[in-house]
Specification:
binds glutathione, Glutathione S-transferase Yfyf (Class Pi), Chain A, domain 2, globular, about 10% strand, four-stranded mixed β-sheet, single chain, Glutaredoxin
Length: about 200
């Protein structure tokens, strides 16, 4: 049996899709949550000074998407061939692009500037990406890539959850395929059980 540990801050963020995948794959893991106050002491000991960290039998890896891809392969949620894997990775990198676009809003403390950034995200960035995701979802029978459920659909669901929580607006409301896909992931029995049991956190 593997000894698996996932270390992150006390939030969903960039660890939650990994938690979903581990739960879906019925892979037991220790869900370690670091308080912000303890982070500076730990940071230097991590490979690139960032979380999440994935540990398996004493070996350590960083980068949440590399970890998701690795677990995806283990639990039969990768593509059937290298082209499908490329399609999956391409969507994953696009989701990262989208995530990076909300950081200036997240970090802004001036209320007026923050509101402007929010409006720009809602009127430009969200439609730009979600109109395109809708096309992918239509083309792939309700999923984002490879015409089947893959690990990137889990990352999509958690990214959508993050955006919705940070902006305080249901960003996928107008996008039927995206809403349905998020719901489909959240209603997978193992994920649903995890969502009901997970700690309530601010992010
Ligand atoms: N590309 C990395 C990004 C990781 C990342 O940005 N981690 C943030 C938390 S979401 C972090 O560790 N921040 C603390 C720091 O940089 O000191 C991944 O996907 O794992």
């Amino acid at each position: 049996m593997s000894d698996i540990k996932l270390t992150y801050f006390n939030g969903r963020g960039l660890a939650e899709h990994i938690r979903y995948l581990l739960k879906y794959g019925n892979i037991a893991f220790e869900d370690i949550r670091i308080e912000q106050d303890n982070w500076p002491a730990l940071k230097e000991s991590t490979p690139f000074g960032q979380l999440p960290l994935y540990e398996e039998n004493g070996k350590v890896a960083s980068q949440s998407l590399a970890v998701a891809r690795y677990i995806g392969k283990k639990i039969n949620l990768a593509g059937d061939d290298e082209w499908q894997n490329l399609e999956i990775d391409s969507v994953a990198d696009t989701l990262t692009d989208l995530r990076l676009k909300h950081y200036p809003f997240y970090q802004e403390s001036d209320p007026e500037k923050k509101e402007k950034l929010k409006q720009s995200l809602l009127s430009e960035t969200v439609p730009y990406y979600f109109e395109r995701f809708e096309k992918f979802i239509t083309k792939n029978s309700g999923y984002l890539a490879a015409n089947k459920l893959t690990w990137v659909d889990f990352f999509f669901a958690t990214t959508l959850d993050t955006l919705t929580r940070i902006l305080g607006v249901n960003v996928s409301e107008k996008y039927e395929g995206s809403s349905k896909l998020k719901k489909k992931i959240e209603e997978l029995p193992a994920v649903k059980t995890w969502i009901a049991a997970r700690p309530e956190t601010p992010f």
